[in-house]
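User: Sequence recovery, please. Input:
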C-alpha cells in the first residue's frame, strides 16, 4: 500500500513537472521569430483591450445630416487682429505690410522691424505729408489667403519667396512688384551629423537629388512642413518634383518618383516646432529650414549640417492694383531704404545675405503649376496608403457654451479638407465614452453620419479624457486589421481637463508602443496637459481660440489627412 502511494506521488510529481515544462515552453516559444517591436505592440494592444472592457463604451444611434460641399474660404480665416502688429506707424498716412516671422519676430528674427522703426523716424514724406509703415506678422500662406479671398488686403505683402505672388496672379488677383528682393535667405535641409557623414561616404557629395534618392531608398527619415502654409515646405515640394522631371514636375514619372519618396517620409509637420521636436527625439534624421533660422540657433548648428536646396528666398515686396498711389509710393521708399548698403550689411548680422556658394539648378515655375503641385501633394502625400483617423470630442460640462460651439464649427468646416479615400470615426466622452461614428471610408455617406453626430453633441458631466483616447485606440487597431498598411492617427478636441477614468500614466506606454500620433486641439484649454498627450509621439498641439481654430484645423487636416 505504501509502495502504491509512493508510485502515485511520483507519477503526480512527474505530471506537474511535465505541465510546468510545457507551460514554460509555450511561454518561451510563443514569441519565437517575432521582433521586439511586434511583441511590444501586441502587449500594448492587449492592455488597450483590457481597458476597453472596463470602460464599456456605448454605441450611439447614427444620425445623418445633409453635407454642404461648398464653403466660404473667407469665414474660415481668423480675424486679422489675431496677427500681431510688430511695428506701429507714427504718422496719419502710412502703409501696412504683411511680413513673415523670420523678418518680424523677436531678437535675431527682427530685421524688418528694425528697418521699419528706422524708416519711421527718418522723416520720409509723400507729397509733403509725413509717412511711415506698419508691420504685421503674417505667414506667407496665410497672407495669400487673406489677399485672395479679399477678407483683408494689406498695402504691402512680403512673403519669404515669390511663389505666393505667382499663385495669387494665377488665382486672378492683380499683383504688382514693388521690389523683387528685400533681403536674401536660403532654404536648406538639416541633416544630423552622423547622417550627413554616412551619406557623404556613400554618395560623395550631398545635394537635393542625393537626399531625395536616399530618402526614397529608406536610408534615413526626412521631414518637411506643410506646403500650403510654409514657403520652405512649398519650395521643397516643387524642387523634389523637379528632381524627377525638371521640365514637367507634374508628369507621371515625377508623380511616381514622388510617391516613392513620400512613402519613406514619417509625416509632414504641421509646424516647424513639431518637426524640430521629432528630430530631437530621433524620429527624423533630416528636416527643412531656412538658413537664417539655422545659423541663429547654436544648438542646431552644433547638431546638424546645412545643405542648401531649391529656389532662393528673396523676400520680395508686393502690392495690389487696388492700393492707393500714395501708399504705393510709401512702399517704394521703404524698399529703397531697406536696400541701402548700410541696411543690407545690417541684415547680415541678422543671418540674411549669407553667400553659401550655392547655385540654383531648379527651373522657374508659374503660379498654376504651384497650385497644381499643392493639390497633387494633398492627393499623393500618403503614397496610396489609407489613413485611419478617429476624432475624440470632449463633451463634458466644462465644454458647455462657446468651447463646444467652436469645436462643432471647426470640425464641420474642416471636413472638406479630409481626403475621401481616408477612414474616419468619431468618439465623444464625458463621464462615459460614446462611439458616435464607427471608422469607415470618408465618402458622402460617412460624411453625412459624421456631420450629424457632430451637430448632435451636447455638453454635461465629468471628463474622462483618457477613456476616450483608449476607446479610439481600440477602434483604430480593429480597423488596421482590415488595412494593415494604413497610417493611424487621432485628434483629441478638449479643454484639457480630466477628472474621471484612466490617467496619462495609464495610457502613455501602450500609445507609445503602438506609435499612434495624438494631435490635440485645445478650446480655452489647459494647454500643457494637452501638450503632454501630443508629446507621446511627437504630434502637434494647437491652442485654438475661437477666432482662428477653423483655419488652424484646415492647415492641420491638409498636412495630416
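Assistant: Recovered sequence (561 residues):
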Amino acid at each position: 500500500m505504501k509502495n502504491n502511494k509512493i508510485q502515485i506521488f511520483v507519477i503526480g510529481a512527474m505530471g506537474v513537472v511535465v505541465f510546468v515544462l510545457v507551460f514554460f515552453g509555450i511561454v518561451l516559444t510563443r514569441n519565437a521569430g517575432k521582433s521586439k517591436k511586434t511583441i511590444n505592440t501586441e502587449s500594448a494592444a492587449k492592455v488597450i483591450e483590457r481597458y476597453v472592457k472596463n470602460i464599456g463604451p456605448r454605441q450611439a444611434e447614427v444620425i445623418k445630416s445633409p453635407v454642404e460641399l461648398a464653403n466660404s474660404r473667407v469665414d474660415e480665416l481668423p480675424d486679422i487682429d489675431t496677427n500681431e502688429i510688430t511695428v506701429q506707424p507714427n504718422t496719419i498716412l502710412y502703409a501696412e505690410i504683411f511680413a513673415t516671422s523670420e523678418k518680424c519676430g523677436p531678437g535675431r528674427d527682427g530685421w524688418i522691424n528694425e528697418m521699419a522703426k528706422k524708416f519711421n523716424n527718418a522723416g520720409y514724406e509723400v507729397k509733403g505729408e509725413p509717412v511711415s509703415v506698419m508691420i504685421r506678422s503674417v505667414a506667407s500662406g496665410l497672407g495669400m489667403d487673406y489677399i485672395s479671398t479679399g477678407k483683408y488686403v494689406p498695402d504691402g505683402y512680403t512673403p519669404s519667396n515669390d511663389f505666393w505672388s505667382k499663385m495669387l496672379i494665377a488665382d486672378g488677383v492683380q499683383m504688382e512688384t514693388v521690389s523683387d528682393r528685400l533681403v536674401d535667405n536660403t532654404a536648406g535641409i538639416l541633416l544630423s551629423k552622423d547622417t550627413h557623414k554616412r551619406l557623404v561616404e556613400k554618395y560623395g557629395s550631398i545635394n537635393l537629388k542625393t537626399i531625395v534618392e536616399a530618402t526614397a531608398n529608406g536610408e534615413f527619415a526626412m521631414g518637411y512642413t506643410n506646403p500650403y502654409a510654409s514657403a520652405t515646405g512649398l519650395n521643397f515640394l516643387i524642387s523634389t518634383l523637379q528632381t524627377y522631371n525638371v521640365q514637367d514636375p507634374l508628369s507621371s514619372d515625377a508623380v511616381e518618383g514622388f510617391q516613392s519618396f513620400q512613402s519613406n517620409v514619417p509625416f509632414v509637420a504641421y509646424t516647424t516646432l513639431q518637426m524640430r521636436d521629432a528630430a530631437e527625439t530621433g524620429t527624423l534624421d533630416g528636416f527643412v529650414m531656412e538658413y537664417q533660422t539655422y545659423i541663429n540657433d547654436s544648438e542646431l548648428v552644433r547638431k546638424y549640417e546645412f545643405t542648401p536646396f531649391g529656389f532662393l528666398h528673396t523676400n520680395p515686396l508686393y502690392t495690389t492694383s487696388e492700393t492707393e498711389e500714395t501708399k504705393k509710393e510709401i512702399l517704394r521708399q521703404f524698399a529703397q531704404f531697406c536696400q541701402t548698403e548700410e541696411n543690407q550689411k545690417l541684415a547680415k548680422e541678422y543671418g540674411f545675405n549669407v553667400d553659401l556658394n550655392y547655385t540654383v539648378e531648379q527651373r522657374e515655375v508659374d503660379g498654376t503649376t504651384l497650385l497644381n503641385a499643392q493639390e497633387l501633394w494633398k492627393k499623393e502625400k500618403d503614397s496610396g496608403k489609407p489613413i485611419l483617423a478617429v476624432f475624440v470630442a470632449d463633451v463634458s460640462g466644462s465644454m458647455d457654451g462657446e468651447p463646444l460651439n467652436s469645436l462643432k464649427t471647426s470640425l464641420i468646416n474642416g471636413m472638406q479638407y479630409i481626403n475621401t479615400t481616408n477612414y474616419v470615426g468619431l468618439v465623444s466622452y464625458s463621464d462615459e465614452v460614446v462611439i458616435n461614428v464607427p471608422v469607415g471610408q470618408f465618402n458622402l455617406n460617412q460624411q453625412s453620419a459624421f456631420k450629424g453626430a457632430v451637430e448632435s453633441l451636447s455638453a454635461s458631466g465629468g471628463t474622462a479624457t483618457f477613456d476616450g483616447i483608449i476607446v479610439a485606440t481600440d477602434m483604430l487597431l480593429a480597423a488596421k486589421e482590415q488595412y494593415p498598411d494604413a497610417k493611424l492617427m487621432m485628434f483629441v478636441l478638449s479643454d484639457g481637463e480630466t477628472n474621471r477614468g484612466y490617467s496619462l500614466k495609464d495610457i502613455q506606454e501602450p500609445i507609445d508602443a503602438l506609435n499612434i500620433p495624438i494631435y490635440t486641439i485645445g478650446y480655452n484649454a489647459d494647454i500643457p496637459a494637452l501638450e503632454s498627450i501630443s508629446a507621446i509621439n511627437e504630434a502637434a498641439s494647437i491652442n485654438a481660440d475661437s477666432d482662428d481654430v477653423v483655419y488652424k484645423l484646415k492647415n492641420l487636416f491638409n498636412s495630416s489627412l
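The longest strand covers residues 304-313.
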